[in-house]
């Protein structure tokens, strides 16, 4: 494999660890925990893993540990730093006992069930240190939630002598990991399960998990690209760039990129929902900003659009939920029809009158995308919905009407972009390289201490890495009951953008000025070497959230 010069230089980067993980580690038990809501129901479901204490690590005395065999899986979408989590687990396990072994199950949770694995040796791991991607063992979106899968996985673990599994995933995967931990604890199967918080979307966070890994790098990559586009827009002065950003539910990525780049518009889905805005409200807001800038002679700009927007517009949300229900039972019937027109007509007939009106008003390409396949968790695949193109079309129509009314005299030419895959496998920033390595190391300490049902947690992240606080959080602590596919289920509460949070408040203070004036910031590419204020800054989101 030919390596780039940067790749070769990054191989020798030594990720920083919190002081508590550098030498021998003592584990300190904190207070017993409760779930964030629905305590009685969650306690009843997780009889063995509910109410466990918080754990933190401190420098301790050397103690000998027996060798362990551990399995690791990567679950869901790629996020920068996954390889460093795995190298952190590996180094942590070897530090516990050099005879310990790490197995990687291939292609996500499916590999665990189907017994597809590879032993991760030192030379194997060395090729992946500080690199982006999940290609070391691959990832997948198979849901691990049925007892038959748990039993197959157990059989595969037993055959390899595996006594602990690490699941690196988002909220759904960690919820399933906790169900697995409970099942193995209940059946005294002898397999511990530890989770690691991953997702570029940034929506797996709470008091004990300050950020999911990958968010930092992905936002920095998108912000570089947005900055470059803004410079182009400000040079050519002829295009409006509508940039859709990944994040299937929450708008954390859009908000962070807005704070980094100061675009003219950034739509925050959570605000759209809270204000019960319609699609027309969003289009009108965009058209008004465009008209105002045009009145100042500036027929160009940038607008950031969160990927999950359509699901937050109340009428669209209702439509999507009706589509989910109808398609869950009638997908074959719909797919048996030849043309898209016929399919749309059949689906429209079976919607409520309110949703039908919304459905038929959508551009046909968007309506088709809304009918497309769901992911294994039953979610609409929002990354396939071309919201940015839809908004350009709708804004164009709105501006034409405004022109007739004498409210707009300028020009509008839209350029659509979608940034998602560009950032998911980027080489991790120093922050993510250090954070991920520390998370992996933490997972190995939790395993060494015989813990199960915990998520690795590393906090105090705006301080230098040496002062980070490592430990474990019981996964049940993050859970509440939610309706999923018609049934109440225990799930990790998803963290959406808080409208009373410091990052959103800062954005609101600035956005009117950013809309009309051209105050673009150009962050440039991630820097790995150089002064710490250039190379080691955490996200603006974290800095604002932790500002004392
Ligand atoms: P995870 O929640 O699994 O981390 O994935 C996040 C994400 O990157 C979303 O932002 C995006 O909607 C989705 O994955 C796209 O996934 P896929 O490429 O599998 O459709």
Strand content: 15-25%
The low-confidence runs, each spanning 5 or more residues with pLDDT under 50, are: none
N-C termini distance: 47 Å
Query: Any ligands, ions or cofactors bound here, and which?
Result: 1,6-di-O-phosphono-beta-D-fructofuranose
- How many strands appear in the DSSP assignment? 16
User: How many H/I helical runs?
Assistant: 23
The radius of gyration is: 24 Å
For the largest beta-sheet, the strand count, sense and barrel status come to:
10 strands, mixed
What is the CATH third-level topology name of the largest domain? Rossmann fold
Helix content: 40-55%
Mean pLDDT: 94
**Which structural class matches the secondary elements?**
alpha/beta
CATH classification class of the largest domain: Alpha Beta
In CATH, the architecture of the largest domain is 3-Layer(aba) Sandwich
Q: How many structural domains does the protein architecture include? A: 2
What is the overall shape? globular
Feature tags:
23 helices; binds 1,6-di-O-phosphono-beta-D-fructofuranose; Rossmann fold; 548 residues; 16 strands; ten-stranded mixed β-sheet; alpha/beta; four-stranded parallel β-sheet
Overview of the structural elements:
The chain has 548 residues and is an alpha/beta fold. It contains 23 helices and 16 strands. The protein folds into two domains: 17-214 and 428-492, Rossmann fold; 219-419 and 501-545, Phosphofructokinase domain (Rossmann fold). The chain has helices at residues 5-11, 19-22, 39-45, 82-96, 109-113, 122-126, 147-160, 171-186, 215-236, 252-261, 269-274, 279-295, 309-312, 314-336, 340-349, 353-361, 364-371, 387-404, 421-424, 430-448, 502-516, 532-535, 540-545, and strands at residues 25-32, 53-59, 69-75, 101-105, 117-119, 139-140, 162-169, 192-197, 240-245, 265-266, 301-306, 414-419, 454-459, 469-474, 479-484, 487-492. The strands form three sheets. Strands 1, 2, 3, 4, 5, 6, 7, 8, 13 and 14 form a ten-stranded mixed beta sheet that branches. A four-stranded parallel beta sheet has the order 10-11-9-12, sandwiched between helices. β15 and β16 (487-492) form a beta hairpin. α4 (82-96) packs parallel to α20 (430-448), α9 (215-236) crosses α10 (252-261) and α14 (314-336) crosses α16. It starts with a helix and ends with a helix. The site of 1,6-di-O-phosphono-beta-D-fructofuranose has 16 residues, from loops.
